[in-house]
Each structure stands twice: as structure tokens, then as C-alpha cells.
Amino acid sequence: MKKKLLLSTLLALASNAALAANNQADETGEQILLAPGSKVKLTNGKTTHEGVITAGTEADGVTVVEYEPLNERSFIHGNWITMYKIEHFKNEGTSNNSRPVHEQVFGEGRLNFGDTGFNLGYILKKVSFENDRRDGSGVVNDVRFTEMELQPAYSQSIGKHWFMIEGIYLGKSGYDTPSDSDTAYLIGGDGFGIRPYYRYQFTDNFSVNTDVKFLSEDKSANGAGNGADAFNFYEAVLNGSYRVSDNLTLGLELFRKEGYDRRKDGGDETKVVEAEIRPWASLGLGKHRLFFKIEHQDKTITNLTSNQNTYEAVGTKYIVNYNYPITNKIYLMAEYFYRTEGDKVIDGSTGYDDQITNFGMLGLNFIF
Length: 368
Hints:
- The chain is an all-beta fold.
- The protein folds into two domains: about 5-70, no CATH class; about 75-365, Beta Barrel (Porin).
- About 0% of the residues lie in helices and about 70% in strands.
- It has strands at about 5, 20-25, 40-45, 50-60, 60-70, 75-90, 100-115, 120-130, 140-160, 160-180, 185-200, 205-220, 230-245, 250-265, 270-285, 290-305, 310-325, 330-345, 355-365.
- The strands form two sheets. A 14-stranded antiparallel barrel has the order 6-7-8-9-10-11-12-13-14-15-16-17-18-19. A five-stranded mixed beta sheet has the order 1-5-4-3-2, with no helix packed on it.
- The two termini are about 15 Å apart.
- Mean pLDDT is about 85; it is low at about 5-35.
């Protein structure tokens, strides 16, 4: 049976990864990060409340949290997301191509195993697109592949510290068929990695978190014969957030990605570097939650054999995300972004059309 608690300040905003956190707070109003599916324990010195968050609303500085007591909660609990995405790329590189990418996410989320701290993230999706080169040849590439990712992890909170360390397995299989050929080129990928997370709550309103991902992907797996050996990369995010009011939180992310494309056929090796600054804002309007973000990116690709930059560009992405609780256990999710990538310098040449990307997503998040 669901129960309710009234808390003076409780920020119900967290990433999917944070659903595994064993959050703790007290009724004096210390701010913590929560999301539906999170475990929570609250005490006033006399009475202790333990449960799993199912919903939360804010009004007049008070958060009403609905939770299910742990003794009524199944050992395995978490969330399951299903969604459909369309991402349309135009003018990639030197081309004037058109590439609408359709992505069906059958399942994405995280399973928590009681209050042990152990949890499992998972992703299963299908990706398909036809790349119209628009170079006068009339050739269109038909690309289809299925991707699975498993993320076993352990999380723990100690005072104002929260951390999680996650292992990653990535499996990918599919094909690429050009319209001017009867040959289907296999797409393969087996990847292994590790991803540690950390968060520190400095004050009731200010926190900082880090997210670092290391992954090595074998592109020649599953019989793919494209000459690629592996793409090894890391991604790092430093994020600070400040709660301005009960309904408004502002933040700033710093992002960097560095990857190396290694070849086993003797071909050139390349290095990819992306650096981004990402201001964001989260706004609550009753049950409606809006999330806004701007991502400014500098991107460079370098040929390590010649030590020359083969691609340079500057990109900007504008993101709007929306969440709404249809019921206590079903959330509507939607997102749109618009991105431009311009000021291209490709092999020393300029004057190319800006790359344009439009993205749309619609999905449901089920809490169990």
C-alpha cells in the first residue's frame, strides 16, 4: 500500500543511472537527489520510513512523496523505458546527403536488487537508416543493426557522498547494403568498458557530480570485415547544479571525449577529440517537468600517420526535454533537439554547407 511523506525540500531530479542510489536524508530538509525507482530512508530520530519512490509533486515549497514500503516491495525493482527516436542528418562532412536514422528502443533502464547496492542497467535497440548520398550517383546505403548493452553496477551512499561503479558490455550486429551492389557488408561490434560515477552534496542547494566512461569496441566482431580493429575512447563529464527555487534548478556541464580508431589492415589511425560546454535548466510546473540544455562543441579529427587535422568543426545543439506522470508508475517522455555543425575545415579546405540535425523522441518510462 502506498504511503505519503511531506518534506520541506526534496529535489526529485536524477539521471537513470541514479535510480540505483541508496539515498538518505532527514526531515530537517537536507536536499538529496531522487527519482522514481530510488530507494529512500527518512528518520526524525523516533520514526524511520523506508521505501521506494513512486511519484513526487511540489507545491508551496513542500514536496509530497509517494513511496511503497520496502517490506511490500519486490526484491527486484527499477524501471523500464521504451521509446522511438528519429534523428535526421543532412550535409555530413563534404556531402549534401540526407540520412534519417530510426531507432526503436525496446528496453532501457535499471534493475535494483533489494537494498544490496547491486543493480543492472540494460539497453536493447534496433537502428535503421537509408543514407542518400545525393552526389549524382543515385546510390543509397541501407543500414540496419541491433545493439545490446548490459551494465552491471554497485552503488553506495555515505553521508554527502554517493558513488557507483559500472561495468559495460556492448554487442552489435547488422549489415550495410549499398544500392549499387548485391553485397551486404557486415556490421559488428563487441565492446567492454567501465564507468565510475561520483556525486558530492556540498550544501542543501549545490552539488557536483562526475561521470567517466572508458570503452573499447572491436569493430571486426561477428565476422565484420571492414578492416577496423577497435575504437578505444573515454568520455568525461563534470556537472554542477544549483537549486534556485523549489521549481528551478540550474546547472553547467563540461564534457570531453577522446577516441582512437585503430586499424588492423595497415590503414591510417585517427584520433577524435570533442569538447563541449553545456549550460542547462530544469523547470517544474506542477506535474510537468521541462529540461533545457545548450551544448556548444569543438570537434577535431587527426590522422595520426601524417599528424594532420583532417576535420575541424564547431557545433551547437539546442535541447528541450519533457516529462509527465500519467500515473504513479508510468511517465511520458518526449524530447526534441536542433543541432548545427559549421565552420568546417576538411583536409585544409573550407566552404562546406553546415551539417543540420533534427531529433525527436517519444517514450514511456514504467516504474516497478
